[in-house]
Known about the structure:
Chain A has helices at about 1-30, 50-65, 70-80, 95-120. By secondary structure, chain A is mostly helical. Chain B is elongated.
Amino acid sequence: MNILKFLVSLIFLIYCFSSDLKAKNLEIEITKNLRCLICQGQSVYDSDSEFANSLKILVEKKLNEGLDEKQIYDYLKNKYGDWILYDPGFSKNTYFLWVLPILMFVFGGAIILKKVILNKKKL
Amino acid sequence: MKTKIFPIFLIFTFSIIFFVFYKGLQNTNVYTPTIKSEIKIPNFDAKEFFSKDKINSDQIFIGSDYYLLNIWASWCVPCKEEHKYLMDLSKKENIKIIGQNYKDNFENAKNFLINLDNPYDLIFLDNDGTIAIEWGAYGVPETFLIQNNKIIKKIIGPLNEKLLFEIKELTQ
């Protein structure tokens, strides 16, 4: 009987906290993608600086206000610029960053292709 | 043909890498994003420092030509250094100095003002630091010069002789 009571209360507790946990997970996910501007090289989630702690509170506040992930990023981008995001969007400042791997891939592919074709011709 | 393209490609790649890193050498380690000037001031609710009455930012930034928002705290050493410049500016008629008390202990903050004098026309509290983020600030001290509800100058770090002069020039 005791075990049953324990299990029921456990399930109840898990049920209560699961929605809370979901919100917490999203908050963690967001703060992990934010760069701490004071302690550069650390994410807001990892940092314990005054700035990072305030940002954590703010993200929680904004989530409670009903803003979604993208809206929070936009809001912070507006205040601090792209630099605060670890995963910046595609804009005129970042296009080189995004296009460079593709360019390298294409160049590398062209070299390999050329080699293969030349080798085949030799054979 | 085959032997030529590879060294050219190699040289090209390394010169790009060299160029990027060489450029990077001259930059400082701590990167501060470029400040978009002429940003509208944020709207927020806060508590007044002494009375603890709730005030909205609309009630604060009304009726004067220029506002100087200064984020400060009693535990912040550079704030003490810049204090004399704020005292100097508080004598100017057309500029109102607004203090934002950042994550501070009330008694310490009060003593700070008693010991060093109070340059602020109004102070509001920012106990959890979220209002500082509304301003796009990093920490203390930070100063914003405001005209017509727009930020016309943002100063990160303490004020100095040169910045004081600049502020005076801008608020002529």
